[in-house]
Amino acid sequence: MRRRVAYVLPVYDEGRTLQAFHAALLAATAQRPDLDFEFLYVDDGSRDDSLEQLLALRAADDRVAVLALSRNFGHQVALTAGLDAAGDADAVVVMDTDLQDPPRVSLELIALWETGVDVAYAQRRTRQDTWFKRTTASLFYRLLARLADVEIPREVGDFRLMDARVVAEVGRYREHGRFLRGIVAHVGFRQEAVLFDRDERHAGASGYDLRTMLSFASHGLLGFSTAPLRMISKLGFAISAISVLLAVYVFSVRVFTPEQAVPGWAFLGVGMFLLSGLQLIMMGVIGSYLGRVYVETQDRPLYSLALAARGRRSAPGTRD
Ligand code: UDP
Ligand code: MG
């Protein structure tokens, strides 16, 4: 049976790039006539003529599908809408439509998938972004690697191929502050990288300004780590420890050089450190409950099964 590969392609004000992108995509996928393709464009409330162009592409080629969100919901939500709609494809490729992710690399992702890998992600060997974007991104990925509970690969964006069973699992994660590359890492299965050189943006400007980049980074950190909450009580313990040291110091001054002791100072100094330390410890206690409430409200699946090979009679109530 012919295998079906769907491309999920988010579009936000890419009118100046779309034709070039679609041509490159067609040229790449033409090299695999043995596969059935679907090109699922998700228009994320574009303000330019992107949607009209997409509908024209759709009229010319029925492998093109178009979804239009009712307003700009952001890249991550647009991807999610596309994954939800990708339905019965055997694999889904997710990539940007500004030609920063070269369509020919998706062929390598497909080839890796055909060797039995469930998630083939495209890892940037080099990238052509501005100095500022490269440094902030690299700092962010370093911090994330230290703090996150799952291992999220570095220098990897959303450009990846996912097997149908991974797409199904990712679809069970419905949190609002979305960090899709973290969710895919959380899901598990066999994940491997293909290295590529990331191109420059073909035309137009990045849809991520500093504000959306910061909020995206905080979704990544807060969504996959409760370490910031745990830092509160660590700080509290450190400050309480200072109050103990201070008390020792005050005591020795009183015993060994009583003529230098200033009345009242000990009580204020030690008390200040002790109380603020205790307060932070208690806030940390509240924080750890809050962290649990937070994780519970994310309501993620407890686990994902890669295989269930069971005995013939192990499922009660089923007959074969
Ligand atoms: N995009 C989107 N919604 C947005 C911003 C961007 O669907 O609100 C799309 C955009 O069209 C592109 C991809 O997401 O295909 C990546 O966006 P962008 O190039 O702006 O991000 P960058 O490459 O700068 O990280
Ligand atoms: Mg881009």
TrEMBL record:
Record organism: Nocardioides zeae
Presence of keyword Transferase? yes
Family, similarity comment: Belongs to the glycosyltransferase 2 family.
- Example of a GO MF term: glycosyltransferase activity
TM spans (from-to): 235-253, 265-290
Q: Which PANTHER family match?
A: PROPHAGE BACTOPRENOL GLUCOSYL TRANSFERASE HOMOLOG, UNDECAPRENYL-PHOSPHATE 4-DEOXY-4-FORMAMIDO-L-ARABINOSE TRANSFERASE-RELATED
Classification via Pfam families: Glycos_transf_2
Q: What is its main location?
A: membrane
Designated name of the protein: Glycosyltransferase family 2 protein
What's a GO cellular component annotated to this UniProt protein?
plasma membrane
Kindly give the InterPro entries that the UniProt entry links to this protein: Glyco_trans_2-like, Glycosyltransferase_2, Nucleotide-diphossugar_trans
- Tell me which residues make up the Glycosyltransferase 2-like domain: 8-170
How far does the signal peptide extend, from start to end residue? Answer: none
Query: How does the protein associate with the membrane?
Result: Multi-pass membrane protein
Keyword field: Glycosyltransferase, Membrane, Transferase, Transmembrane, Transmembrane helix
Question: Which cell locations does it reside in?
Answer: Membrane
